[in-house]
Design a protein that fits this description.
Elements: H1 2-23, H2 29-39, H3 50-61, E1 65-66, E2 71-72, H4 75-94, H5 108-121, H6 126-145, H7 152-157, H8 173-181, H9 188-201, H10 207-212, E3 218-219, E4 222-225, E5 234-237, H11 241-248, H12 259-270, E6 279-286, E7 289-296, H13 303-316, H14 321-328, H15 333-336
Antiparallel strand pairs: 1-2, 3-4, 4-5, 6-7
Helix pairs in contact: 1-2, 3-4, 4-6, 9-12, 9-13, 13-14
Length: about 325
Amino acid sequence: FNERLDALLSTAKATFRTFLTDNDREPDPGELKAALDAATGRTTVRRSDLLGYIAEFNERQRGKINEERGQPFTSTYHGRNGITLELLKDYVNASRKGARVPFSALDADFVEGFTKYLTTTKGYAKNTVGKYLRALRMFVNKAAEEGHEVNSGFRSRGITIPEERTEKVYLTENELTDLYLLDLTAHPRLDRARDLFLVGCWTGLRFGDLAALSPEHIEGDRIRIRPSKTGKPVVIPLHPIIPALLTKYGGKFPPVISNQKLNDYVKAAAAMVPSLQQRMPVGITKGGVRREVNRPKWEQVSSHTARRSFASNLYRRGVPSQTIMSVTGHRTEGAFL
């Protein structure tokens, strides 16, 4: 009995010290009782430090439904959240702040240091930095909603998200025709990637929806599909290139490959198109430094160029923004433009 009392006393002291370290204050009796219940296995509690909370949050989100859209959270969402956690771990280790970051230590200085780490140490572009800071803000807001005591100084100042207007290319209809007519029979991988890219150029679908596209989605001269991001059904006019590609692949759409391989192969195919050799100025801020360089247009082509080409070419034809937005899923005209 005395040994049991000694063990409980030791656990109580350790639990008290842990609470004091994590929260920079002593627990009240109710908080200490809850912490002791968790330490002795009577109950389970969620981690009160930032990194532990994010790891638990990410795990809880697996398989959850985005209530706003009525669809499961996308792989892009989970990927961004996971990368943000790893970057925060790297930053904490590099800055020698210790393995734990209690919510009480999450202040403007922490955010400023993390921003500097992403900008100078990692050399990320401004919009990439903004993407991970936006995820951090989401984590902290969720923690506050769940009752965690977030540092008041952080809550008052919040996180400023750096943004920079991007200068991305799209391919004109003539350039898309040149790409379509390019003979790639000697390069089957590039051939299939080029064809998949062209489907994206004339449907405006995101890569995830492009991968799910099948002949069953075609009804007459229209494509009907429910994009995963919005969950709202869209109807897309069937461009003449689509039936031609279906014929080429025996009534099916071109086989799907990973987004990274699609980027690489499409860029390689675009490099063979004479009309895409023109050099264009590109400005980007990386590592906190703004640089202007001239690069050939083919070098700036990626899988997302397909979606941008779809919207831009229809816009040039005079199709109303709202009509195009009904396909692309943009919620505001400002974001669409």
